[in-house]
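Obj: model holo form, ligand = zinc ion.
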Amino acid sequence: MAQMESRVCATCGAAGMFYGRRDVTRDFEGTPLTVPDVEGWFCNKCGEVEFAESEAAERFFEQATALQQQARNKQGAELRNQQQR
Ligand SMILES: [Zn+2]
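Output (holo structure tokens):
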């Protein structure tokens, strides 16, 4: 018997996870961040991502942290501009 390459989503329980590469958008403290070209398992139902390798997860969080920092800096600059007025 051939074994099906499929996974059950740990978040929503759907069995429809599939392997691929795509841009991943996540909310970090209310700021949507998109990290391009992430490799792993993707859930069609809830959008959950399971990274293929720990390396991919590290890369994702590295980029997410960098993007979050950028967003914070931008917000901080806007706040400072408002206070100066
Ligand atoms: Zn799911």
